[in-house]
Amino acid sequence: MMTPLSKSSASTLKDAWYCAGWSHELRYPRILGRKLLNRQLALFRDQQGRLHALDAACPHRGADLSLGHLVEGHIQCPLHGWRFDDTGKCVCIPSQLPEVKIPPGAMASTYRVVERQGIIWIWMGAVRDPMPAPPHQDVWEASPARHRHFLPPQLWRCSFFNAVENAIDNTHLPFLHAGLLGPNQQQLYPTQNLVVDEDLRGFRGEDSPESPWGFPRSRQIFDGVLERVVAAWMGMNEIRREYYRFDLGGSLSFYVEWDSGTWDVLAGHWTPSDSFHSWYFGMSIRTRATHWVGDIFQKWFGKKLSLQDKLGVERLLSNEPDNLPSTVSVVGDEPALTFRRIHNYHVNHQQGDGLAASSTNWV
Ligand code: FES
Ligand SMILES: [Fe+2]
Question: pLDDT-derived band of residue 231, with 50, 70 and 90 as boundaries?
């Protein structure tokens, strides 16, 4: 039996890259309002296409800047028209003459945002030098754009921790997803090989080859003759290897390499919105079945899987705010416990020198 971590040991980790949205959601001159890590933000592009993120609470009287619009590259507040540049500095107050000094406190906080592979990443904690890199998909370049599917962002009514732990936990597949993945999935869970990154910002996991009940998952999902024929046509006959990767703040990717050398990647990025809600940004990549049926199946599968997970965490779990659930754990929960440990480690080292720590002092 694994040792549970204390219930009070978690709070929001700010020093991490979180997904803020998809690149295609932001086209100039749109301003996107989104609540992340308890802050309402205004995300926008300037005329050169660069991304910016500002605290949306106007420093004058608190109106929501994300409901304003861009004027000459500046965000204009919808209430009294103050304008802010991309550094958050107020550059214009229409109710006073231009020569009157703008109060130095007329500043909106800004956050670091980067754009990689169609994803907008935001860092809302203390800026470090050097900054860790946001998560990256190696399979991205191998796949034509139309085989990368982004689900519309979803706001789940659940705590961030429940959403992430449910995603990392493969032992729920034969139960919560029996209707989608089939009723005959093996319930015994193989021992996991987990390798934590040196900077403790992520880990990689896969079934241990020594596990007495290791199994190729494809045999369980496609167990009928017809299913196998369809699966072969879809390039999904035999799995060569599969593994997963988790990266702080809340990014998880499952990788499946098929015998033909093609790939599927199923990725979910979770970002706390407030104490009771989490954003889910789901995406998938495939390099097999490059026909239109493959496109339809990929979209259908991602949508169905995320709906089952959403309903599962919203309805089946107690979603206490800002806390890890205090629960009993078994060996099958090791990936979730590893997430808790690296998350808590970095919460305890926010503003500190967490990146300098060795991998031996984190438990
Ligand atoms: S509240 Fe924004 S300008 Fe007054
Ligand atoms: Fe699931």
Answer: confident
* Domains of the chain, earliest start first: 17-123 (2.102.10.10), 140-356 (3.90.380.10)
Provide the pLDDT confidence category of residue 362 given band limits of 50, 70 and 90.
very low
Side-chain half-sphere exposure of 146, counting CA atoms within 13 A: 9
Ranking 119-128, 195-204, 253-262, 314-323 by mean pLDDT, the lowest is: 314-323
- CA angle centred on 92, ends 86 and 97, rounded to 5°: 165
Helices (H), the chain: 160-168, 173-176, 178-181, 217-221, 225-233, 292-316, 334-348
277 sits in which H/E element: strand 277-286
Which ligand 1 atom is at minimum distance from the Cα of 81? Answer: 3
Non-local (6+) Cβ contacts of 63 within 8 A are 57, 77, 78, 79, 80
The pLDDT tens digits for 267-279 are 999 999 998 999 9
Q: Which of 54, 65, 80 has most ligand 1 atoms within 8 Å of its beta carbon, as the pocket-test mutant? A: 80
Give the Cα separation of 252 and 245 in Å (integer): 6
Phi–psi pair at 188, nearest 5 degrees: -65, 135
Distance between CA atoms of 196 and 297, rounded to whole angstroms?
33
Q: By C-alpha distance, which of 111, 153, 141, 179 is closest to 285?
A: 141
Residue pLDDT, tens place only, 1-42:
444 444 444 588 999 999 999 999 999 999 999 999 999 999
Q: How far is the CA of 326 from the centre of ligand 2 (A)?
A: 21
